[in-house]
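Write out structure tokens for Zinc protease.
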Amino acid sequence: MKKTYLAAIIAASLSLTACVATNTGAKNSALAQASENSANKVFSQKYLFKELDNGLRVLVVKTDYPDLVSVQIPVSVGSRDENEVGKTGFAHFFEHMMFKGSDKYPQAVYADLFKNAGVDNGAYTTNDYTNYHLDFSKDHLDTVLEIQADHFKNLKYTDAQFKTEALTVKGEYLKNNASPTRKLLAAVRKEAFDTHTYKHTTMGFFEDVEAMPNQIAYGEKFFKQFYKPEYVSLVIVGDVDPKATMAMVEKHWGNWEKGDFVNNIAPEPKQQAPKYVHEKYDGLPGHWLLVSYKGADWQPKEKDRAALDLVSELYFSNNSALYQELVVEKQVASQMFNYNPETKDAGLRHVFIKVNDEKDLAVVRDAVNDTYAKLRTELVSSEKLNNLKSNLKYSFINRLDSSESIASTLARYMHFDRDPETINHLYNSFDNISAEDINRIANKYFIDENRTTVTMSALDKVPGFDQEVNLNAAVAQIEQAKTNPSAPLFTVLDKTNDSPLIDVNFLFYTGAAADPKGKKGVAALTAAMLTRGGSQTRSYKEIQKELYPLAGRFSSQLDKEMMSFTGRVHKDNASQWYQLISDQLLNPGWREDDFKRIKKDLIDSIKAGLKASNDEELGKEVLYSKLYQGHAYESFNSGDLSDLDSITLDDVKAFYSAQLTQAKLNVGITGAMPNALKTQLMSDLSTLPAGDEKRLTIAKAPKLTGHQATIVEKNAQSTAVSFGFPIDTIRSDQDWAALWLVRSYFGEHRSSNSYLYQQIRQERGMNYGDYAYIEYFPRGMFQTKPDANLGRSSQIFQVWLRPLRSNNDAHFATRAALYELDKLIENGMSEKDFLATRNYLTNYAPQLVASQDKQLGYALDSEFYQTPEFVKYVRDQFAQLSLADVNRVIKENLQTDNIHYVFISGDGKDMKKRLLSEQVSPLKYNSDKPADLLATDKIIESYKLALPAKNVEVIAVDKVFK
């Protein structure tokens, strides 16, 4: 649900470098010349853009980021195009099917090639388009283009593969259905639209997903209609020669036959009255409100869409007066955010709010609608409007720090009319918007007849939901302060360079492991108070107001032994930004209202964000907690709920004074930070207490004996599984790189190339993915690459099986993973798999540090582990590895005698019964499977987990992290 702002292209002229434009014949000369001749364009780079004879459009942009290339292939087909009754979800389904390959490059063949080449590839589907994205080293560009062209022209799959993937899609639907925001979106779309295809989400209607295995003929029809060159664009950005690249595209894609299908989507009839619906969600903590208004269709040359986006940011973002009133000041709401997907036809503009008390639903709804009423009758100040434009400009610059980010941004706009000049049309309309335009357009769209409201909670209905409006609050001024310098005792990693983006990382070697007994959560509260609270001279609201036009970032990340405060700003705004964030970090205000708000948010994130809404992350965190019973790592990073209730502001102040010392501080700087500012920073940090402990002392993990299981029972439609055991090998150990390679082969995160993924997800269609880890990897549901600054003195080997459709399937999948782990330990890796995985990681490693802030974070981690620079470290280790080394490391680090399993299930008693009785867990398919697979299934369905009754615990979710 990533937002794309209208002004996302404002700074293209500062970020897209060394582009080349050429004329490519009469057919394309106007397009190429358009970007060359106009001086009044934000996307003013010379680029190579061509429409081939078959209708395929190709955009090539050369950048100065060395070696890496990003290829994005937006296909102008999304859930909007699913206008046949009973046939929804097929745009998303073919996002999956496109990975099956072709006769020339079947999945196993191209996956092996991609793995060896270190290609990171994936795809996503939206309302209006499907995008395929690949990132890799430039040496593999020709191969990637050839393989992708062959797949688009000659996709090949069996009926069995079609049916198996349909099961996977169903599993993904069930997984997504656990998210409150997804359920709200599905409900509002179904209610707001009567005839338009925006009535259903990208996943489709569930009954259509269930029927999908029997829709093979329609699937072929859908693919033949939309997967044609006139619907497809190629965006290639990176360290490439544009002319040579275009020649490669013409060679591989030029003979693709053009289609003749045109899809006409009937417009939605005008809504005649406001609508309201309540969704009951059993067991949901708190109460949700969604207020949605129908907006404008995609008109980049008109002002409507751009003005509506400005409205959302001015009045409903976390910098708005309404957010300050509801979330920060009155604390009526615990969450508030807006979401405005860019759609071809008139879509919905959303404001989400979560409250804890049902009586506040009407209060926050009234506040939202009162805000809409105010903006229809008042003119926004020129200061606010200019600040917003400044924020959007620098926010975009901050994001475009790699070829991949540039390519993905272009792809998001190319799909509309397959013309890169869409960006310029859009900005021209945006830049010319006045306060009067906003007022006029608000009166056109924000009317009762365009509104649909949804509430969602465990209640059968919301009583007394009558329409009223309230007023919102005003904003105060900001002052500056200085601190007194003293001699620095902290370490500094100075990587300043010519980049206009400045990244700073204040990394303290302390964290949740330092929480005192009975105060679990004080570290988390401290970190949050320093980034989401005010300073001695400024309120949080004042800081946010002044940060806004600077587009400066400042946030915190907490783990067991690391507390990281990271910030980014453009060099133009560095001094103003630093004064604000240094004030927060070094002169915290310790306001009681900030503390109450932040503590409330933290408690809500555990109750609603983790325990209620994220079964996958919950299972992983429960596993860590169980493996570290009685250890400093036992508690969840955010704390225990009972402890959080009793923690006071004085506890936070004491933790800050004792733990945030110069001795524990490691500062990282990169980008073009002025010397004067750097000097000031060093001086200011010297005011921190000196301290005498450089890092926490962490004991070894408790000894794990035998097989143990924890079953967390909650309202869940699927069963999530995690299991693992402590390991002694951490990143600073000689065998770590070999073990990292083994992990990648067995279960690379979010990769279809890994062995476990192939066995459970690909061959059997059981779930959405299966992965393995040797380092802590939180938030894995939401990201494909790990974060930096999660260094630990103790780690575990962990297998994460994404949610399964039932307890039976979860039992089978767990057995399958254990069976495959036993085989790996017994047989080791083959020479072929070893070489392919080593090649993959050698090529893939640079992608982990593809952006400036990632490079800084990993460099600081190398300091923590006392290892060389990360990419060099792993590549040097790999160069010395042999297959014998790897298989030795497997034997010495992996085992299945002592394991803890965690299951998140809707029926804990049933799961416990299955485990203790070693109940057979047969797997049923909806299509024919190979005989050898079925024979293996017979072994797996009875594979023993060997769990004694005394080692199996069923706990209610409300008791977790209590």
